Amino acid sequence: MANGIEKSIELAAPIERVWSALTDHEAFGQWFRVKLDGPFVVGQVTTGQITYPGHEGVKWTSVTEEIDAPRLFAFRWPHSENPDADISSAPSTRVEFRLKPTAKGTHLTISESGFETLPEDRREEARDGNEEGWEIQVQNIKAFVEA
Questions:
Q1: In whole angstroms, what is the distance from residue 64 CA to residue 45 CA?
Q2: Cα–Cα distance, 73 to 136 (Å, whole number)
Q3: Low-confidence residues in the chain, pLDDT < 70
Q4: How many domains does the chain have?
Q5: Per the UniProt record, which residue ranges are transmembrane (predicted)?
């Protein structure tokens, strides 16, 4: 993924458990470290606050784009310097979680695309920061679903 990010991981957990960890907003919040105000619903905005150390209180906003149980969950989130920007018009990227059952559990691929739509002066920083973030998050979900 030249302009995007892609992380794959094998999880020793059944696909139903991984699916729930991704799509149940409270479970998602536990491993991702975000307190979400409500569930993920296709076409609707989900809001909350990051609880990740060093980023506490940062606003979370996303729009759920697809929920195709138990194989694809996707949302779009803004990359705006203004945390109150309207998500429908703010520059954003798409995050996809793709699941496949395996003999030992679940193969999870996380991808984020659309960085080319961000303002040029913020593109590289946003991509690099999220690349590092997804490295951490694949380990977080692994620890969560395999516990």
A1: 7
A2: 19
A3: 1-2, 83
A4: 1
A5: none
